[in-house]
Amino acid sequence: MLTIENARVDMGDFTLSADLHVNRGERVAVLGPSGAGKSTLLAMIAGFQPLSDGVIRWQGTVMPNDPADRPISMVFQDNNLFPHLTVAQNVGLGLRPDLRLTAEDTSRVGAALARVGLGGKEGRKPAQLSGGQIARVALARVLLRDRPLLLLDEPFGALGPALRAEMLELVGELAAETKATFLMVSHNPEDARLMSDEVILVEGGTAHAPVPTPEIFANPPDALRDYLGG
Ligand SMILES: Nc1ncnc2c1ncn2[C@@H]1O[C@H](COP(=O)(O)OP(=O)(O)OP(=O)(O)O)[C@@H](O)[C@H]1O
C-alpha cells in the first residue's frame, strides 16, 4: 500500500497537500485542472520534491530520501530517452546506469523489447522511431526495472487516440504482469475511464483521496465537472 500521511509540498506560492492511500495493485488516474498540482503529486511520491511536512510510506516503510532508492519507475511525457543512445542502451540504463551490461542483462533487454513489440529495433536511435515506438521503449525500461510502483506523467499525451488506447492497454498488461500499482496523470477523462479503478482528483491545493472511477464519473464533483467541460 502507498500511504501519504499529511504530506505537504511548498513551491514558491504554490502548496500541495495530500493525505490518502492507494492499495497495492490499484490502477489510479490522476485528474484535475491545469496547474492544479498533478505533476507535483507524482514528484512528491517520487522524491523529486521534498516534503515540508508529513511522510510517505510504501508497504509501511518510510520512503528513502534518494529518488533512486525508491521502489518506483517513472515515465514522463517526453518519455525521457537519451537521443544519442540506442534503443537497447536506453532500456539497459534501467538496469545499470553505467551501461556495463552482462550477457544476461543484454538478453533481458532483448526480452523486454520483444514483449513491448520492439524486437529487432535494438540498434535504432530514438530519432529513428515513431512516437508510439518511443513510448514502447519507455515501457520496456519500466518492465525491466520491475519496481512495484509505477508513476506515469501523461506519457502518451502526444499520441493520437487510437495509439493512446493501445498504449494504455499495454500499460495495463505490463502492470498486471509485474503486479505493479500505478498512478497516471491524464488530461483525458476517457483515458481514466478506460484504464483506472480509481481517480485521485487534484484541485484547490489538495490531492483528494481516491474514489472508484465509475462513482466519480457518475457523480462528478464541481472541479471535475468543469474539467470535463460542462
Ligand atoms: N518549480 C516551481 N516553482 C514554483 N511553482 C511551481 C514550480 N513548478 C510548478 N509550479 C506551480 O505549481 C503548480 C502545480 O504545477 P503542476 O505542474 O504540478 O500542475 P499540473 O496539474 O500537473 O498542471 P498541468 O496539467 O498543466 O500539467 C502550478 O501552479 C505551477 O505554476
TrEMBL record:
Keywords, alphabetical: ATP-binding, Cell inner membrane, Cell membrane, Membrane, Nucleotide-binding, Translocase, Transport
GO molecular function terms listed in the Swiss-Prot or TrEMBL record: ATP binding
Keyword hit for Transmembrane: no
ABC transporter domain ranges (all copies): 2-229
Record-given protein name: Thiamine import ATP-binding protein ThiQ
Organism: Aliiroseovarius zhejiangensis
Higher taxonomy: Bacteria, Pseudomonadati, Pseudomonadota, Alphaproteobacteria, Rhodobacterales
